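Handout, section B. The chain below has 288 residues.
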Amino acid sequence: NKWYLFDCGEATQHQIMRSSLRVGKLNTIFITHLHGDHYYGLLGLLSSKKLDKVFNPLTIYGPKGIRKFIGCAFADLSFEHLGYHLKIIEYEVGETFMFDMFTLKVLPLVHSVESVAFYIKENDTSNKLNEEKLRAEGLEPSPLYGELKRGRSIVFQGKELKPKDYMLEPVLGRSLIIAGDNSQPAVLGDYLNDLDLLVHECTYTQDVYDHLPEKVQHTTAKDLGKAAEEKHVKNLIATHINPRYSKNSKLGVEMVYSEIKDGYRGRLFIANDLDVYVLGKDREVRKV
């Protein structure tokens, strides 16, 4: 009953209204870096939350400077003024944060300002009982199941049942990286190894980038495909596509797709506004 937002560009609150999401269930916002297209929507979203009388607590994780930015617009960040509890955490690169269903680590990227990626690892499931095996012993679901889950041996019909004999193999949690602006996807290094999902910017095709009069620190489709393939990334969602690749341009977005696929054999998606993707337990991403 809660959701998380990664980056908050201008007019994010309006896009939320067009989606199935609700501000009232927004729990945490993560900001990758302080470029306007990634955080200028914060003030509007925070204001909307107050005006709509959505009083659930909200936490914002951002780089150094995010607290000052918000404080310039909201002189008073107290509960009495906002109507809800707002917590602002300025992270450091390399920090790890624990959440109820996952851990999140802050990874450094290469950009014109400090920019980060968030490596997210779902918790492993390690306390699943082999109920079929227990039923074969004649033991139906009961409080004794709980004892086994807590690692305690039990006695049933005169027989000692040990937890290790009735636990299923741990189910490894899914892994993904959501990256901010970055010119070198390979900088993510071993965190890309067999990653289930990489969400990464792909601003230009290589030829367009090579002919830019002034180089900018963004990723090309060629470099993104190469980095993802070398580390066996299973699924890739490319974002932050330059507007020149559009239906109304000579350069279509299929150029970006094709250049990535030239070097990458995994499942690839080019993100559009309001797209919904699901990373299944089978480690495959599907657009829904």
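Note. The mean pLDDT is 94. Compare this with the example in section A.
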